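Before the break, one more example. Copy the sequence into your notebook; we will annotate it together after we see the structure.
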Amino acid sequence: MTSFEEAKTEETVTCLHLTFYHPGQEEKMMFRCLNFCSREQVRADDTAKFGRDSSVCRYNLMDTRVSRIQFSLQFYRKLNTSECGFEIKNLSKKTKLTVNQTELGHLNKIDLPWKCTICFGDYQILAEIQEGESMDYFETHLHLAEAPILQERCLPSLQPIPENGISPSLFLPQGKSPTEIDENE
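Here is what the structure looks like once it is written out:
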């Protein structure tokens, strides 16, 4: 047998992709302590904490409006399965955390959906879980968004569109509205 045949089977690693956005990120540089360059390994039994206290938090946000410990992510294996997941817990006494519109108060926790948006204050974080097999550790891969993750949703106008598919409002001067005429005129 060759050494290739005797080598251990390579296992995939669960990776948590986190994309950060704050409207003042260019001026305030609150993400300057985060490593956006490469993936980072985290032991499975460690809790990944986010906040402003560098002595406690693995991921530091340099902003006085962020709690010393804002929230934590805990890696776990689901009962009676080989599937893994993450649990998010709000550790801030002052700021509520929302995960896809689910509001978490102090010490509330929920399972992190495989793709979700985490918000607190003006911070927006897109979290995406890439599944893996390893039970010893997981990886985080941080990204920086240049545009807001959550956009204000503009509802389309509820004006009828004619059969030719061209809206008359595109061609009308401001303040003018279309008038209805009879086909026979």
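Confidence is low (pLDDT under 50) at residues 152-159. The domain at 13-148 is CATH 2.60.200.20 (Tumour Suppressor Smad4). Try to locate both features in your own notes.
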